[in-house]
Records
---
Amino acid sequence: MRIVETARELSDLSHSKKQGGLKVALVPTMGALHEGHRSLIHVAQQHADFVIVSIFVNRLQFNNEEDFETYPVTLDDDIAICRSSGVSALYMPSSKSMYPDSFGTSVEVSGLTARFEGASRPGHFSGVTTVVTKLLTASAPDIAVFGQKDFQQFAVLRKLVDDLDIPVEMVMAPTIREEDGLALSSRNVRLNKDSRRRAVSISQGLFHSLTLFQSGVRDTQELNEAARKSCADEIAIDYVQIVDAQTLENVSEAHVGDVLLFAGTIDGIRLIDNIIFTA
Ligand code: AMP
């Protein structure tokens, strides 16, 4: 597995592989890799010959200094996971190489970023779209793989590559969960025992709403409320909302393919999750 640290090296490596006829995939991450990331790598390997994983804790997308400072960093484990998963190359740029002192560009997607995570975390999405633009430009992948776990992020990034004519196929990989249903997240390690036990009520609420949908309920207020009510009292809910998967606009009647988005905070730790309505 090649480890590269500059955009130039990454670009040279990717172009040489593409010239050699290989299909290149990029899996962007912030490290602290878990089974969710591993499954993204696996999906990338199904679509491409040469899989690049990037690990960069992107300060620009943290609207909260403490969240950035306490974000888990497990580089040695991450490298071992990438090696054992058959990753072809790992891109681990330093902060200085990603954002030198002279850096002064910001990439913004409007519309889709106005609500939900965009409203609750000012500046978050411009941090995401700026770094992902840099990663896509440097690695010029044929495909890029992201998790459904961050559903709004995927919708925003799909719009970004569409609007900027970035020639990459965007692939969304399913959310990987703990056995009890909690969506895997690098931030879960911060949950204490009690919070961890209560956090499971988030996915229980989402699945409860899905079951109601599958039994014929279409009224979104009722479906939103069902998910909200299942949530443990200790969870401060930010939003529980069924939206259209493309526009992220509210719908009054739920359809197959709509998404129930959730965000809430427990013990100061923000957790997000979502579920796509299926028949
Ligand atoms: P992160 O390192 O948390 O920024 O996430 C990097 C990528 O992994 C993003 O595309 C996330 O959506 C994805 N991801 C995070 N958690 C999960 C999960 N539980 N299942 C699937 N993908 C995930």
---
Amino acid sequence: MLRVYNTLARKKVIFKPKEKGLVRMYVCGPTVYGPAHIGHARTYVAFDIIRRYFEWKGFEVKLVVNITDVHDDMIRVANEQGKTIFELSKQYTELFFKDMKALKVKEASVYPKVSREIPDIIETIKLLEKKGYAYATEDGLYFDISRFKGYGKLSGIKPKQSITGTRVETDKYDKRQAHDFALWKKVKPNEPFWDSPWGPGRPGWHIECTTMSSKYLGLPLDIHCGAVDLVFPHHENEIAQSEAAYGTKPFVKYWLHTGFLTINAQKMSKSLGNYITVPELLSRIDPNVFRFFIAVRHYRSRVDYSDFAIEQAKNALQRLNDFIQRLYAVEHNNFSNEATNALKLAKKEFEKAMDDDFNTPLAWKVIFTLENKINIMLGKGILAKNNAKEIIAFFKDINSIFEVFETDKKTEDIPQECLEMIMQREKLRKEKRFEEADDLRAKLAAKGIAVFDTPQGPQWKKITTNSKDSKV
Ligand code: AMP
Ligand code: ZN
């Protein structure tokens, strides 16, 4: 039975979607005024693994990821660069899609953009106004959190007390409560704007997710996701707006939040010079290694990125890829019950771990334990081709969740000259000229190629240093 940690309930609960077999999932998307960074990559890869796990379990997943293309930061950057926000967002939305594809993050069903949803956003704000949750100030329209009784239930943050009948001048905008937030912002010079009943302007940040999630998924949503930084105020405000406007309680059945990514134990920031964009990341690191680095960590944990941690991930993944290739090389037929049982146990334990709030660290422990056991059997020569096939099928199967392995049999690209030496050696062996054949094998080894003989003929492999496989 699948259980998920619901931030709102502050505990793991049994997952039961509103509609049997269908998961309606909303992930807060990027603000597209620059390239995505590796913190974004962490969050989107982690939720991609969760989405893929649902699919692996047989659920259909309808995923919505919004694109925030109207935002204060966008306006600032567009003005700095002498561009319109539309030029800026076009450039970085395209780059975002390219980066996600390179990171093998599966596409969402819909990517709604704020700039195209303004009429619906206005309708949501009108609803809030009609129900008495909104008030006007000089610079726009605000949500009155004192009208919403459950404010703070997600984050645990208590709204600052308001004094009835008076106004607390918390800032220049003359809000009633410090935590009141903008639903509509009146236009200022050099800003893009849309017409509205409250004058020309643009929506506040939070209202976009309230509007788009209900429009594209229907209420209540099964899962709403984002990194932990969004719990307050963004998700808290989404709850207030959505439950106030539409009356569906709860707005979301399960709130899932990823931990933050830091770099060498520091917060990533441009001023600290430790800011890594996804294009930079992908110029340095194989996307499979990055995905593996994320996959072996729990989605709720903080992730610390460092060269050392990436090197560790690379080596561990290489070990598993080499293992898969070793399995392909098994040719004999001494079927092993021991191997079948080890695989059966691994499958069971794997699903149990993943069902426990996507406990990927434990799931990977199960995979490495299996690899260890099977490697011992391989060493003893007690693994049949059929066993190997079953294990390869298992790796292919879980790769549909993680997308990290190279699961196809590799035919290694080696120089023509070496290929000829291998053929020559085979000829010598058939002629029982074993000493000369061994001589050629040694020469090939010196060139970094290991040859091993199978009933189907010679097989070969490039030797990777420190790899067990180099001994094959
Ligand atoms: P933004 O473009 O800042 O609106 O963020 C888009 C998504 O990435 C949100 O779910 C954020 O919570 C998440 N995010 C931003 N920075 C980080 C980080 N350093 N680590 C993990 N997730 C992040
Ligand atoms: Zn959002």
